[in-house]
């Protein structure tokens, strides 16, 4: 196992390109597959690509704000003290890996966007506390928690099919989360991953190539975090404009205004911790905790530097999704697995097919829109529980996120790493996690 770990890390370090180039190569691969295996011509594939190129603009903005608002909030004095205090639980590299994995996993079970940011930011504080920890394995551990998101409270597929009016309601009705998120098979998968991933990541740290040890002192996490000292008060006579910029009253007023809406939102909607409300909470807490508009804006200036990769790369993935969906390539992939399934194996093959489709359509809701019209009728015909079918697709979506840079971009931006720095370890996480997920879907 140690040899496999070192081999995967070396191969990824040597051959995996930057995340942007990965998106370009994926674009070319999907274009070729569409021309070869569908009725689409090269001109039509280019049209599908360009037509879908801007379909993720709203989502790209949401993920950019996740990075920016998370960074802003993390650089407030109160949050830095809190994360630093929590990081004191770890005194050794092994403890650091265990702690970061567990905290990230628990946070992603609450909300995937929240978990991505918290995992990365907390890992940086732990790295400062334990500078001898391998920084790459630590960040891979933080990202591994994202594997659990589609079995948690922000899971898009089970929440969608539990909502009246979803597009398959006439076929399957509404399926309560008691049959999906709180089913025995899902609770088994979540529990096994939650309590074994920390130890797997600890093993990966010990199994890494000692010749390529990259402890946190080499990465200088204090510079990666770009912490801003906002404690100094402005000197000299202030102009009226400068007084406004340094007004604690204005920050307090708008901060309280924002948090009042948060309270109203939860009263009206219950505990709906969607990506927009997460961003909203982090933004207005950042305004409050920085205390003045000037300190807040200083943090914003540094924060936006981390969002560049998301802004540029997400449109390319939208173009890839456009080619996959419009050409029918994703449909063909799903049908191929349905054709070799029976009542017992169908959940497993639904999971595997979803994992493959997710590599090209890295969006839980978008993937369900593509696969559900194929998987649900097939499950009804074979007599397979539709709730388990939906969760099989959900876990497939989460599973291959471990080797899909799309979702790693926010964490990598915060950490100051490239995708090749963590992906070798994520390959091993992907291989390991297949077994508890498959067992849960087949035998529970």
UniProtKB/TrEMBL annotation:
UniProt keywords, alphabetically:
Membrane, Transmembrane, Transmembrane helix
InterPro entries (alphabetical): SCFA_transpt_AtoE (IPR006160)
Question: Any keyword Membrane?
Answer: yes
A Pfam family name for this chain?
A: SCFA_trans
- Is Secreted found in the keyword set? no
- The transmembrane residues are 20-37, 57-74, 109-127, 139-161, 181-200, 249-267, 273-291, 303-324, 344-361, 422-443
PANTHER family to which the protein is assigned, alphabetical: SHORT-CHAIN FATTY ACID TRANSPORTER-RELATED
What is this protein's name? Short-chain fatty acids transporter
Source organism (scientific name): Virgibacillus kapii
């Amino acid at each position: 196992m140690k040899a496999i770990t070192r081999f995967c890390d070396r191969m990824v370090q040597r051959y995996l390109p930057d995340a942007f180039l990965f998106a370009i190569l994926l674009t070319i691969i999907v274009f070729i597959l569409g021309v070869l295996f569908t009725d689409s011509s090269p001109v039509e594939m280019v049209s599908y690509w360009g037509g879908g190129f801007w379909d993720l603009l709203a989502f790209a903005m949401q993920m950019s704000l996740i990075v920016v608002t998370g960074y802003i909030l993390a650089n407030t004095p109160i949050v830095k003290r809190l994360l630093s205090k929590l990081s004191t639980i770890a005194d050794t590299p092994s403890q650091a890996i265990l702690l970061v994995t567990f905290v990230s996993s628990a946070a992603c079970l609450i909300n995937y966007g929240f978990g991505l940011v918290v995992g990365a930011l907390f890992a940086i504080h732990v790295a400062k506390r334990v500078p001898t920890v391998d920084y790459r394995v630590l960040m891979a551990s933080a990202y591994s928690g994202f594997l659990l998101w589609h079995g948690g409270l922000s899971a898009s597929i089970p929440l969608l099919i539990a909502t009246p009016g979803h597009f398959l309601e006439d076929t399957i009705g509404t399926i309560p989360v008691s049959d999906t998120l709180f089913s025995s098979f899902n609770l088994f998968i979540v529990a096994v991953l939650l309590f074994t991933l920390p130890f797997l990541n600890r093993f990966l740290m010990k199994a890494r190539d000692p010749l390529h040890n990259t402890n946190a002192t080499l990465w200088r996490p204090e510079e990666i975090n770009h912490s801003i000292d906002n404690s100094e008060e402005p000197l000299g006579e202030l102009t009226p404009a400068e007084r406004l910029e340094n007004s604690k009253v204005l920050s307090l007023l708008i901060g309280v205004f924002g948090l009042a809406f948060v309270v109203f939102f939860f009263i009206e909607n219950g505990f709906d911790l969607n990506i927009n409300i997460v961003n909203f909470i982090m933004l207005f807490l950042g305004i409050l905790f920085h205390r003045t508009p000037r300190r807040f804006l200083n943090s914003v200036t540094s924060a936006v530097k981390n969002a560049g990769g998301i802004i540029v790369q997400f449109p390319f993935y939208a173009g890839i999704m456009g080619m996959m969906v419009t050409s029918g390539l994703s449909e063909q992939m799903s049908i191929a697995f349905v054709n070799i399934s029976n009542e017992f194996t169908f959940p497993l093959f639904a999971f595997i097919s979803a994992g493959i489709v997710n590599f090209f359509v890295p969006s839980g809701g978008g993937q369900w829109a593509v696969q559900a019209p194929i998987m649900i009728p097939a499950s009804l015909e074979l007599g397979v529980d539709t709730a388990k079918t939906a969760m099989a697709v959900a876990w497939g979506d989460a599973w291959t996120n471990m080797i899909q840079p799309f979702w790693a971009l926010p964490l990598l931006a915060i950490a100051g790493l490239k995708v090749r720095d963590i992906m070798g370890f994520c390959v091993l996480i992907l291989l390991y996690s297949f077994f508890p997920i498959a067992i849960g879907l087949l035998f529970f």
